[in-house]
Amino acid sequence: MCPFQEVIDRIKTSYVQNDTYSPLKNAGFQGTILLTMKTKHPWLIEIGKSIRRERKRKGLSQEQLAALASLDRTYLGGIERGERNVAALNLVRIAAALNVEVATFFPSVETLLEIPSEGT
Fold first, then answer.
1. CA gap 50, 73 in Å, rounded
2. Beta bridge pairs of residue 16
3. Class of domain 42-114
4. What share of the chain is helix, strand, coil (3-state, %, to 5)?
5. Which of left, alpha, beta for 19 (phi over 0: left; psi -120 to 50: alpha)?
6. What are the boundaries of each domain within the chain?
7. Nearest to residue 68, comparing CAs of 48, 85, 47, 92?
8. β-pair partners for 15
9. Which of 34, 26, 32 is nearest to 83 (CA)?
10. How does pLDDT run across 36-95, given as a tens digit for each residue?
11. Nearest in space to 104 (alpha carbons), one of 61, 62, 46, 63
12. Cβ contact 48:80 at 8 Å
């Protein structure tokens, strides 16, 4: 049995299988576990829409932006769809690649107050 089986089992109950995620490679564990969030958080969806809007405004494909930001294209696609809880460092990379302020990706406080804070 994998020494991290309890952690893996908890992850499996918190997430749905069959979407993209990096492989878990721990001592004694071989293979890939594919994970995604059960529900998309509305705020992450809004951030993703903002990134997609800026990318299209600049005339870039997902592949081009991902290369400029040193990210995987599938990861960027997940961010744009609101499926990823994107790290601050990756938001900075995307903003730098698009030559915009990171704040560009965030909705106003008024908009956030109108959007439910729980997943849909």
1. 17
2. 36
3. mainly alpha
4. 50, 5, 45
5. beta
6. 5-37, 42-114
7. 92
8. 37
9. 34
10. 556 788 889 999 999 999 999 999 999 999 999 999 999 999 999 999 999 999 999 999
11. 46
12. yes
Two structure tokens written together for 42: 């509305």
Cα–Cα distance, 16 to 98 (Å, whole number): 32
Going by C-alpha positions, the residue among 25, 48, 51, 26 that lies closest to residue 37 is 48
Residues in a beta bridge with 17: 35
Are the beta carbons of 17 and 34 closer than 8 angstroms? yes
| Amino acid present at 87 | A
Tokens of 39: 């529900």
pTM metric for this prediction: 0.66
Residue matched to tokens 């020494």: 3
